[in-house]
Amino acid sequence: MKTISIIFLLVLSEVVPAQNIFYPTLNKTYKTIDECIPQGWSLFDSLSGDFNGDQIKDLVGIIEYKDTISEARPNGSSIVTSPRILLIFFKNRNGSLDLKLQHNTFLLRNGEDMRYEVFPQLIIKKGVLSIHYDLFHDYLTYKIRFQNSYFYLIGATVRGIHGGQCSKEDINFNTKKFYKTSYFIGEEKNKEIKHLYLKELKPIRMEDFKMPLTYKLPGDYTL
Questions:
Q1: Residue 3 falls within a domain, yes or no?
Q2: CB atoms within 10 A of CB 145
Q3: Greater confidence, 156 or 20?
Q4: Each residue of 199-217: b (16+ CB within 10 Å) or e?
Q5: Is 133 helix (H, G, I), strand (E, B) or coil?
Q6: Model confidence at 16, in pLDDT bands (50, 70, 90)?
Q7: Which residue, of 48, 116, 133, 161, has the fewest CB within 10 Å?
Q8: Which of 62, 131, 140 is nearest to 101 (CA)?
Q9: What is the mean pLDDT of residues 155-164?
């Protein structure tokens, strides 16, 4: 068994050698989103919407590294995957794009869930960007808004089924309200609902939110 394992690891190391990922440093202004995509990367997804209330459609994009490499992640793990970067641009009246946010680690990658393929879904509504994930056991939604000159995480919903128990945690960082619902499958009538006011809460600057399901909240909750 040890011999087989060693051979497998040697083959794997030849197919996907461990590499250090150096995230690109992008310029501040571009004419188009295609112009900003560095060599070796591709556009994974994009969506337009007004983030700053100037009635001009801004742009959010996801770029993905074309190769598969070993990437160190903020939770301490190392995963063989294609890194992804979240980009948010403000569009000017002359059509140019100003880069306002580049987040190298926030987006989940393929291989970080029991369902190997992980697709971040983008939604823009009333100036709020929602990023949603359908994972094997969990359903995650993170809400991001531009306020006070920065992009902040202002809300999140984490739903899941673990050990036959269904749970939903919904949090609003602006109102400081936290709602938690839980029940066992087939026993929804015995649903337990908690309404909490967490006065310590405040919106999180996106630069400080490194990765989903790793941010510790008051009350021993993880977002």
A1: no
A2: 19
A3: 156
A4: eebebbebeebebbeebeb
A5: strand
A6: very low
A7: 116
A8: 62
A9: 88
**Poorest-pLDDT segment among 28-32, 140-144, 172-176, 193-197:** 193-197
Residue at 2 is within a domain: no
Task: Say whether pLDDT at 145 is over 90.
Answer: yes
Q: Considering the domain boundaries, does residue 16 fall inside one?
A: no
36 three-state secondary structure: helix
Provide the residue type at 190 as one letter.
Answer: N
DSSP, res 174 = T
Beta strands in the chain (DSSP E): 29-30, 41-49, 58-65, 69-72, 78-81, 84-91, 97-103, 121-125, 128-134, 138-147, 150-162, 165-172, 177-184, 192-197, 204-205, 216-217, 221-222
Amino acid at site 95: G
Write the Ramachandran bin of 148: left for phi over 0, alpha for psi from -120 to 50, otherwise beta.
Answer: left
Please give the model's pTM, rounded to 2 decimal places.
0.86
What value does the CA radius of gyration of the chain take, rounded to a whole number of Å?
Answer: 20
Give me the number of domains the chain comprises: 1
- Cα–Cα distances in Å, from 212 out to 59, 141, 150, 176, 178? 22, 10, 19, 19, 17
Q: Are 200 and 207 in contact (CB under 8 A)?
A: no
Which domain covers residue 117, as residue numbers? 25-222
Residue 92 pLDDT exceeds 50: yes
